[in-house]
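Example (one chain per record):
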Amino acid sequence: MAALIWSRHVRHRLAVLYSDPFSYSLELGLPQPSQSMFDGDPEVKRECLWRGTAMDAKSLCADRRLSTLRCRSEKGKWQDIDLPITTYASMLSEYADPFAAPELIVMRNILRSWRFYDTFRTDADAPARRTSTGTRTHASSLLLPSGAK
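Predicted structure:
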């Protein structure tokens, strides 16, 4: 089994530029060095949720840095959320308040609606590609031979 070796200065950002109505980014990095067995596991350094595709100070709806989360109120003022979030969990999974942060719930539902086909082989000899008894499925959920939707 190969080990993944991270540089101490590496950060990776995953951004979902959805724009309708929100976009989201998740930034991962390494924790502070310690004697923990989990010293090499990535942690969430920052998460942001904003309106549109361009993230700027005015469009931010929610901003999480390490274990601190703040959300904008209806009036546009920042509110600190009194909920420490562990560094290995996402604000989308840990905080749900339809009144203080409805945007988080909307983005969580958008991401939950996505379909990922990462648990079965897709090569030419994969069992899923063999001739078999047909089943009924909606045309919108079929994959092309290339694996694309």
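Caption: The chain has a mean pLDDT of 83.
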